[in-house]
Amino acid sequence: QVQLVESGGGSVQTGGSLRLSCQVFAYAYNTGVMGWFRQAPGKEREGVAAIDAYGRTTYMDSVQGRFTISQDNAKTTLYLQMNSLKPEDTAMYYCAMHSGSLLSLGRNFYRYWGQGTQVTVSS
Fold first, then answer.
1. Concatenated DSSP letters of 27-84
2. Minimal CA–CA distance to 49: which of 32, 67, 65?
3. Residue 28 confidence (pLDDT)
4. Angle at 49 between CA 67 and CA 76, to 5 degrees
5. What's the average model confidence in pLDDT over 50-59?
6. How far apart are CA 1 and CA 101, in angstroms?
């Protein structure tokens, strides 16, 4: 059984920061690759950042240099540090996991998803 629980969302002004967390409950599963996705109203869900078991990371172009994905050594918590937030970052943010090794931002690779946490950035 896999359960992903996000927290840390909220409302901030442009230029502010937030840190999202995702508690990973995946007993006997290989956590493989973990990712953060987001979905704004009326838009498709898009990959924001991902990290593999070796700590390698990948980011979507628009958050490169502003967001940082990380996980604790036990791989029980995934983080997304978001700095210099912009109104266009406003979305529901989801934590996701797949048990393979492909470091990808493609949502179809990810089998397990959390319920999401809302991030709102006002101008």
1. TTS--BEEEEEEE-TTS--EEEEEE-TT--EEE-GGGTTTEEEEE-TTS-EEEEEE-S
2. 67
3. 64
4. 95
5. 96
6. 20
